[in-house]
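Session log. Operator J.P. requested a structure for one protein chain; no other inputs attached. Running the standard single-chain path with token output.
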Amino acid sequence: MTTPDEDMLITGAGTAIRGVAGPAGLLRPAVPEASADPTASLTGRGLRYKDRATKLALCAGRDALADAGLLLDPGLAVPGESVGVVVSSNYGNLDTVCDTVSAIAAHDYTATSPMALPGTASNVTASWVAITYGLRGVNLTLCNGATSGLDAVSWARVMVRAGRVRHMLVIGVEPANPVVAELVGPTFDGAAALVLESAETARERGATAMARLGRHARRETHARAVGDVLGGLLDDRVDLWCRPETAPGDRVESAEEQDLTALLGPASGALGVVQCVTGAAWLRERAGGTVLATTQGADAAAATVLTGAGAAL
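Structure written below.
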């Protein structure tokens, strides 16, 4: 069964960012020096073999599922096969891959750990999230440059509309570690997550929506992506614009701007998801409005519109 775009809802959100107290904390200045590591809340066996990106994703994903009413104690409130996960990360397990390659180059394959080798798989973060929380639906990872986060939100919508799952957990995560710092410089260290489902599904289980997911476009320029998603909406003026990491050549008419890169640092593949979580929190606090999230890379740009849960495009 297909679902109209205007009937796709964000019903839960979570964060794992030092100095950010939940999704609403993204609307305020972060104070990382005064805050505990969010991964300290994780417990259980096998944590020593999980990379930082996976640990951050586990925290944010857990909180988003719980916020949506899908994760209870001791487990899921819905069948596992009805929940899928898509993770967006450009540097997620880069440290594990580089450490493994270096060990093999310096010695041979016997220098590697059999416990660490599974962590070199590109889908390791999404896999561990699914295994840990019993999510047996579609499982995806996007590593698509600057637009990856918004692309992941779009693919989650596609999976729900195609009937592959009823609920999608979307996670954007990037780790700060010595390997990433050496290759790309200082980066964001954290994760954000949201739960996406149709209005029909949310209504059936009595869920409360944070925001409504509107149009999405991925185009060759920022201006084209923005133009295609707005399409005359409110005379092309939005209430909140979540800006891309790099300054676009064009501006968006907005009542308020949010530069999450200035707040958190370069977030790469996590940025689009962080923007959507920020927008959903903003809409929940204000009970309405229009939010535009945009990301921009060297060869493409993406834009996504969010509105209040009671509004429609």
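Operator note: The chain has two domains: 5-204, 213-308.
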